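PT: before anyone asks, these are the final sequences, not the draft ones from last week. 486 residues across everything. Please model them as a single complex and drop the result in this thread when it's through.
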Amino acid sequence: MQIQPTVLNETGTAICMASIFLVPLVGAGLALVNTGFGRGRSAAHSMLSAMCVFAVAVLVYLVIGFGFQGFAGEPAHLVNLGGRQWNLLGAERLMMRGVGFNGSALSLVACLQLFSVGIAAIIPLGAGSDRWRLGASCASTAILAGITYPIFAHWVWGGGWLAQLGGLTGCGNGALDAGGAGVIQAVGGLTALSITWILGPRHGKYEMSGMAIPGHNMVMVLFGCMLTLVGWMGLDTAGALLFAGASTNSIALIAVNNVVAASIALLTALIVTGIRFGKPDASITANGFVIGMVAVSGVCSLVSPAEAAAIGLVAGIMVPFSVELLDALGVDDPSGSISVHAVGGLWGVIATGLLIQGHPRQWLAQMAMLAALLGFVLPLTYGLNLLLNRVYPQRITKDGERQGLDMCELGGGAYPELTPVTKDYLYR
Amino acid sequence: MKAAGFLLLFAGFAIVLSTFVLLSSDAPRGAFVLSGIAVQLLGLVLTFRAHYTLGEGH
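LR: through. Structure below.
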């Protein structure tokens, strides 16, 4: 059974396009968050890396990624199992040659996906902060945009087997993910986890007990969080219209759910860190704001504001404990990307199954999506990045890390008047 | 231990996948899906544990 493609009227197309134009703000906000959480001596490198991986993601996705992803109702590779035809992989033409840019839903999907894959590519940068080489992050992004992301996005958004679970096995509407809690956030977050495992912790992080390496600019982090809210409403609106069958009437609901989930998650994280540490922690509270949006994005057009608040509340409780647990497990994630995007995204996938109304056995489809993320995306992205690490070491040298990535890789820093200029640190 | 962890992650995914292909009634399907997720959680614990040990060695 094939999934029927989305058809939008003129109003829907206009609103969808306007929403897509807001999506790059999510990338800009996340880039600011990642940079603020990193060290000052790697700040310019961090922002440049965000722009570079965005560019690589867009180009690789244009050339091969969209061919693998495709869209519902478009050509695909099928396999016959148990007497049923399962849709495994898109079979679009390379370079988006099969897409008619005429306002069709397919053209809108192609446009939205260029930005979405860029966002997914920026997420791991926060986890690899202060030690991930520019060239290696670009190469890793090529893997993400060319292989990992499109395959999984096809399964959920391209009429793939996860989306078919509704029609073929009676599991609700098949895997649902309106704004990309699983497809964008969890894929990006699990890639961040793989990168952190491969790179190892920053020097000095675990060498002295109780050592924390604070971010260099918390104002940048908090402003980045606010910026993401604007983009997130666009991302969720466009995603809900194109992938969840939402009507233009639900736009206000999507915006309200986003703001409510982000707000309650922020306040929850503020209170939890206040209780645990004696004073609220600005960095974890900022992460609370983002995880609220991450978690609700999967089901943004399908739940009431009260249910969105419940999702945000749980997400806000999860983030401080996740950050602490990962730290205790030796996972050095300076910006909390794994806690926010992987943990929040997975929670969003589960919450969709728990809270959605009128779709019997929807939770089974959501569990299948969760299993695919943990059992397919994580091993695949880890394996491919490990292979990349063998041919092109991803981590900067110890001396380079001491100098800072700005000086080591770019030859100039973000804040030259604050950087000691000695013989070691001469500009190119 | 790292390889075993990733193997368990994939094995749990395979259990969930085969559930939808082979089973049709709700109760066993739900049980097998939850079993697959439980296997994956075990794999995740092993993978984290393996990387923690590697980090200590490093």
